[in-house]
Amino acid sequence: MAPIVGYAPGIFDLFHVGHLNILRRAKQHCDVLVAGVLSDEMCLRAKGQPPVIPAIERLEIVEHVDFVDRVHEEVVPRKLDTWGAVGFDRIFKGDDWRGTDKGGRLEADMASVGVEVVYFPYTVTTSSTQLRRALAALQAALPAEVVDLAD
What we know:
Blueprint: E1 5-10, H1 17-27, E2 32-38, H2 40-47, H3 55-63, E3 70-74, H4 79-86, E4 90-94, H5 101-111, E5 116-120, H6 128-141, H7 144-150
Parallel strand pairs: 1-2, 1-4, 2-3, 4-5
């Protein structure tokens, strides 16, 4: 029997426990786990701002997570195109996608090639967006001479 290949895409910026949780859970549902790390350009397209950590460093961080068998830099917007490049049987997303327009499109696209979409609970206590906001607030509270030293 062929191994089940799973694909867990994400930006993985400011790597945190939510990222770790989704990768851990994903590995429990496949034999081979491929983590898709969005390129800087794809991150800008998806979030409207560049990542804090550049793609080359995010790829290295995710590659060294024990649950991940290999990484793939995601450079195209459509998961069908990524499926063609990677070849996976299951794709894993946070349940914040479930019931949304983008989740519905993903489910339809993946069903067209026989890929199962598996949702995991979203870690609401920590997110890269929250971390980014906290860092911005901390920087704004610092005196200008301290901020200048950090640059």
